[in-house]
Amino acid sequence: MTDVVEMPDLSVPRLNECPDWLYLLREFDLLYRQGTAGGSKLIASHRLRVRKARMEQGI
């Protein structure tokens, strides 16, 4: 008995070749704005400044 292995169609882009950058940026933005600072006062103060600046800009 011989198993036949089909080769993938290389003309069709694969998922990892076409990332959804807008989705990725939205997720990163959401995590950055609402996530924890991880216990670092330096990071927490930076994130606070970023959040305030974004609020002032209406973003």
Detailed description of the structure:
- The protein is mainly alpha-helical and 59 residues long.
- 53% of the residues lie in helices and 0% in strands.
- The protein is built from two helices and no strands.
- The protein has helices at residues 21-34, 41-57.
- The relative contact order is 0.08.
- The model has no long low-confidence stretch (mean pLDDT 79).
Mean pLDDT, rounded to whole units? 79
Query: Would you report the number of β strands?
Result: 0
**Tally of DSSP helical segments:** 2
Radius of gyration (Å): 21 Å
Task: Provide the low-confidence segments as ranges.
Answer: none
**How much beta, percentage-wise?**
under 5%
Order of helices and strands: HH
Strand pairing plus helix content: what structural class? mainly alpha
Proportion of helical residues: 40-55%
Shape: elongated
Biggest sheet statistics: none
| Amino-to-carboxy terminus distance | 63 Å
Structure, briefly:
This protein has 59 residues and is an all-alpha fold.
Main attributes of the structure:
59 residues, mainly alpha, 2 helices, elongated
Q: What is this structure's SSE topology?
A:
Elements lengths: L20 H14 L6 H17 L2
